[in-house]
Design goal:
The complex is a heterodimer of chains A (about 280) and B (about 250). Chain A has helices at about 1-35, 35-40, 70-110, 110-125, 130-140, 145-170, 175-180, 185-220, 235-240, 250-275. In chain A, about 75% of the residues lie in helices and about 0% in strands. By secondary structure, chain A is an all-alpha fold. Chain A has a single domain (about 1-280), classed as MetI-like fold (Orthogonal Bundle), CATH 1.10.3720. The longest helix of chain A has about 35 residues, at about 70-110. With about 250 residues, chain B is α/β, with parallel strands linked by helices. Chain B has 2 domains: about 5-85 and about 165-250, P-loop containing nucleotide triphosphate hydrolases (Rossmann fold, 3-Layer(aba) Sandwich), CATH 3.40.50.300; about 100-165, no CATH class. In chain B, about 35% of the residues lie in helices and about 25% in strands. Classes of the chains: A mainly alpha (about 280), B alpha/beta (about 250). The interface of A and B includes residues 178, 179, 196 and 278 of A. The complex binds adenosine-5'-triphosphate and magnesium ion. Adenosine-5'-triphosphate binds near residues 42, 45, 46 and 49 of chain B.
Chain lengths: ~280, ~250
């Protein structure tokens, strides 16, 4: 009677593993492309040639050219640097920062917890775009400041998840057992709390990659993020909206790039959640 | 002889916002001698867990003193408390929940050993030895808590509690979540361990089953609404209960 269940579990686990490998490789591939984008372009992404402006896709220019005659494929590849790399940087920063603050608050409690959580309430209450405008006003525009602005308003979400999870963990018998085993706070947090709470946090950050990519693009559109002529998917799309009817490939190329990257990271997020679930851990 | 554990005037008041303060444990005192097995019985909500949590310092006492092996640990913190945990260990009520789902049983059992400076290789050997002592095959060291039964897990929990050879073992309803036959096995294991260790191991045995206490303990305290209403040799208490509540408790079982 036992055997069928065991087999089903095994199959499910194997498929989760395969998915993890596939999406992991795809994500890493995207990353590699974004890091080495400068060396992978077939043409110079910034070279203007008005004689071939708005040319449809052809053998020479696989994705056509934009209104200044720049090769779209090259621009999309170079754009991955700004779009993917800065998004990942942003998400990594808020994940680490937010989790650290949340775990600290949850573990320590008392006044530190109160102060930091009220602070996070304040940041949560700010409309993101207004805050980004304020940051841009104080620090000036540019990609770096856009990242800082988005990080400042996004960390509280992670802090809240990490805090509530830590509070729940603190009550478990195995944390009490770890205390009785003579483990100090640092060891308990690293060995028992973090591994048990990191699943939902990682899933949140994976799913946030898409949102953040969009928000960075939005800020770029307002002139608060990446500045032209820097290739950035979001701003490339916004800039060329008016050409949708005459030369749709110019808008579609970066759009599809965003779609594919967001999709890959979302699927990776789901897979990591499935994999992190201890019930999926085989014998 | 010095008592292993001396509890004086221990009190816990829970203050809940918007409600009246609630006295869960009300000025109780007791002693536990080396090699002795002291049972605490009482109905659900009588404050048994609160007492043990204060003794193990997982919960701060409102008032009173806890002296472990001659050392006052009522307000110990950090390193001092970790030293106290070398003398005192606990077996929890729910075996599976008391092991981290992401660590193997071996990791859990060896954690205290590693914390007290034993090398990885030596710890592994000692863990295998402990598992055998508690009647489990050595390959259980690499199993996860959800891969073993409740009874097996509780054996592993006892192995963990005994790893650093404590003087005081606290069992908070360690057998309650197990079925009757497994309960018997675990109790037999505890008796056997007591026999082996002689006066080296004292046990504080929390239970709500008076029959188990009669079988297993040298002395028993009856806790009612946070107060010790009766104490003595289990047989005496059961055959000749003085207190009204104890009478009711015994009648309800017989
Ligand atoms: N953190 C808390 N805050 C408020 N009240 C509490 C708290 N913990 C326990 N209590 C109360 O203290 C009383 C004693 O609880 P305790 O857990 O010690 O009972 P117990 O004897 O162990 O019961 P059981 O046999 O069900 O385990 C209960 O009435 C409970 O509601
Ligand atoms: Mg209890």
């Amino acid at each position: 009677m036992k055997e069928p269940t065991v087999r089903v579990q095994k199959i499910r686990r194997d498929s989760v593993k395969t998915r993890l490998i596939v999406f992991g490789i795809l994500a890493v591939l995207l990353l590699v492309v974004s890091v080495f984008s400068e060396y992978l372009t077939p043409c110079d992404p910034y070279l203007q040639d008005l004689t071939i402006a708005k040319a449809p896709p052809s053998a020479e220019h696989l994705l056509g050219t934009d209104r200044y005659g720049r090769d779209m494929l090259s621009r999309v590849i170079v754009g991955s640097r700004t779009s993917i790399f800065s998004t990942l940087l942003l998400v990594a920063v808020i994940t680490v920062l937010g989790t650290a603050i949340g775990v600290f608050c949850g573990w320590h409690g008392k006044w530190v917890d109160t102060v930091l959580m009220r602070l996070s309430d304040m940041f949560l209450a700010f409309p993101g775009l207004v805050f980004a405008l304020a940051v841009a006003g104080v620090l000036g525009g540019g990609l770096h400041n856009a990242i800082i602005a988005l990080a400042a308003i996004s960390w509280p979400k992670y802090a809240r998840i990490a805090r509530s999870q830590t509070l729940a963990q603190k009550e478990t018998a195995y944390i009490k057992a770890a205390k009785l085993a003579g483990s100090g706070a640092g060891k308990i947090i690293c060995k028992h709390i973090l591994p048990n709470i990191i699943g939902p946090i990682l899933v949140t950050s994976m799913l946030d990659i898409g949102t953040m990519m969009m928000e960075l693009a939005g800020l770029s559109f307002l002139g608060l993020g990446a500045k032209p002529p820097i290739a950035e998917w979001g701003s490339m799309m916004s800039d060329t909206r008016s050409l949708m009817n005459t030369a749709p490939w110019i808008t579609f190329a970066p759009g599809v790039a965003i779609f594919i990257s967001v999709m890959i990271f979302n699927l990776l997020g789901d897979t990591i959640r499935d994999y992190a679930d201890p019930r999926n851990r085989g014998r | 002889m010095e008592p292993v554990l001396k509890v004086e005037d221990l009190t816990k008041v829970f203050s809940r916002s918007g409600q009246q303060d609630f006295t869960a444990v009300d000025h109780i005192s007791f002693e536990l001698m080396p090699g002795e097995c002291l049972g605490i019985i009482g109905e659900s909500g009588s404050g048994k867990t609160t007492v043990v949590n204060m003794v193990t310092r997982l919960l701060d006492a409102t008032q009173g003193r806890i002296v472990l092996d001659g050392e006052d640990i009522t307000h110990s913190k950090g390193a001092q408390l970790r030293k106290a945990y070398q003398k005192m260990q606990m077996v929890f009520q729910t075996p599976t929940d008391s092991f981290d789902p992401r660590c193997t049983l071996g990791d859990g059992i060896g954690e205290s050993l590693r914390n007290h400076g034993m090398s990885a290789g030596e710890t592994q050997k000692r863990v295998e030895q402990l598992l055998q002592m508690c009647g489990l095959p050595t390959e259980f060291a690499s199993r996860y808590p959800h891969q073993v039964s409740g009874g097996q897990c509780q054996r592993a929990a006892i192995a963990r509690a005994l790893a650093i050879q404590p003087k005081l073992l606290i069992c908070d309803e360690a057998t309650s979540s197990l079925d009757v036959t497994v309960q018997k096995e675990v109790l037999a294991l505890l008796s056997e361990l007591r026999g082996q260790q002689g006066t080296g191991l004292s046990i504080l045995f929390i239970c709500h089953d008076i029959a188990l206490v009669q079988e297993f303990c040298d002395r028993v305290l009856v806790l009612y609404h946070g107060d010790i209403v009766e104490q003595g040799i289990p047989d005496d208490v059961i055959q000749n209960p003085q207190n009204e509540y104890t009478k009711r408790l015994i009648n309800s079982i017989l």
